[in-house]
């Protein structure tokens, strides 16, 4: 059972603030992803939880126990924290077979051989590698090696598991299937997981909540649905999913699309003056006969299950994605009309 709390965590390297004021309370059994572009501070935060980096400020707690308190100068050694970890470079030992690799954490805890083998085989069953116990890592695929690393992290029964881009070395298909396997294992064991990734679809499919980070700062913490449909700012809207930003002006209870003074949307945030409208490509409907704004078909990309259109609307290129559309329905250069649904709005600098 592990609840994890980060309270006003900062990490500074000289005058670089790698992480600034990170706060979260993670519930027992929750799957949390840290998501953000390269250099946003995900790994640094994870390493502070693991105990490989000391926070410059703030407190980290597992359950009721402080594992790090910068003000008091208290810092628990990584091996005492009882945390499991799998990193991007999932070093499995090349000279040990799968059983010995997975059993290693138990061996250093002096667990007797028979008991060790029993626990190792349980873990190998969980990660679907029961038949591979005698093999050396060189006789396994990348995905199988990844699962050995996962089994090794899990065998010590950590209540908190930290995963840092553990699927990044795998091909697209394997990554996809491993997502579901990791989720299933996490649910079955009821462990708390912190998962670092820059892959938004990975975070969306696996997480109970996502922490979106940018430039060392938490931008939003929320359920995947809330992050996607109610992004806190333009950075989050842009990073999670695809989005068109359209300049606009807010007046009273409406926001007017720039260049189309007749086209306006509700103003729930009571913005004033320069604003930005944001609409997802799949929330735009195309038509030949009429709609809110007129545009010219610029490009079409056939994606199999959908067509990805670029439509020139005045000076902007608007991206529209239609599921199940026929590629030939619109021709390049043809006049088309667009209707916008679920339009989001932000202040210009939000
Ligand atoms: N030891 C260090 N000394 C100075 N700056 C550092 C150090 N470690 C990290 N940083 C800086 O802190 C910031 C956050 O780095 P971090 O590795 O946490 O990012 P990240 O989000 O995990 O990125 P990536 O996805 O590329 O791994 C970066 O700007 C990085 O250059």
From TrEMBL:
InterPro entries tied to this protein: AAA+_ATPase (IPR003593), ABC_transporter-like_ATP-bd (IPR003439), ABC_transporter-like_CS (IPR017871), ABC_transpr_MalK/UgpC-like (IPR047641), Mo/tungstate-bd_C_term_dom (IPR008995), P-loop_NTPase (IPR027417), Transp-assoc_OB_typ2 (IPR013611)
An example molecular function term from Gene Ontology annotations: ABC-type transporter activity
Coiled-coil zones: none
Record bears the keyword Transport: yes
Membrane-spanning parts: none
Keywords: ATP-binding, Nucleotide-binding, Transport
Domain ABC transporter residues, every copy: 4-240
Transport listed as a keyword: yes
GO CC terms: ATP-binding cassette (ABC) transporter complex, substrate-binding subunit-containing
Name of the molecule in the record: Iron(III) transport system ATP-binding protein
Species the sequence originates in: Succiniclasticum ruminis DSM 9236
